[in-house]
TrEMBL record:
Claim: Signal is one of the keywords in the record: yes
Annotated keywords: Signal
Signal peptide: 1-19
Protein name: GLPGLI family protein
Length: 189
């Protein structure tokens, strides 16, 4: 019986450890960045990554005929293809005219989806941020401290969908995908 319990405990520990990974951050050589402040961390994102994402998205949207399903972010769900095209064109115009400016974003700051200021870029940053975090392309600094050398990614299953949760070594959440990609208040049909 002890052997069976030990085996079960070992399997449980292994499965718990395999549901997380440590992400090492790639060094950033460019000073051309934008900042994104979350509850517990300051994220520094290379503008070249944003530029690459928007160029790639342009091709994807054309291929998918500007369907909102090209995005995971729930803010795009109610949009018709023409509205997706209009929003993307506004973002492209904003990005091309203000790429050289200092851009700062904060999750505590309210921003309208259709605003024509820097807030229009926010849903796109929310869309690309989990992938950048997973590949270690974002400099992460815990608020009030020095930049971290690494952080962890955990996976949570919500209604059959897997979402990533990025955490600092002390357990504080950097970013939780389900907050942006899951409609929490939608009634089941």
């Amino acid at each position: 019986m002890k052997k069976l319990m030990t085996l079960c405990l070992g399997i449980l520990c292994y499965s718990g450890l395999s549901a997380q990974r440590v992400i090492k951050i790639e060094p950033q050589e460019s000073a051309d960045t934008l900042t994104y402040v979350t509850r517990n961390a300051v994220l520094t994102i290379l503008k070249e990554d944003v530029d690459f994402y928007l160029k790639t998205l342009d091709s994807v949207l054309k291929e998918r005929k500007f369907q909102h399903t090209a995005y995971r972010n729930i803010q795009f769900n109610p949009l018709k293809p023409e509205e997706v095209r209009t929003h993307y064109n506004l973002v492209s115009k904003f990005w091309n005219t203000s790429r050289g400016n200092q851009l700062n974003y904060n999750v505590d700051r309210f921003s309208l989806f259709w605003s024509e200021d820097d807030g229009i870029l926010l849903p796109y940053l929310d869309e690309m941020l989990p992938d950048l975090l997973e590949y270690g392309r974002v400099k992460v600094t815990e608020k009030g401290k020095l930049p971290v050398a690494n952080y962890q990614v955990f996976y949570e299953d919500i209604e059959g969908q897997t979402f990533r949760v990025f955490k600092l070594a002390n357990g504080k959440i950097i970013w939780r995908e389900s907050e942006y990609f899951l409609e929490h208040f939608a009634g089941k049909r």
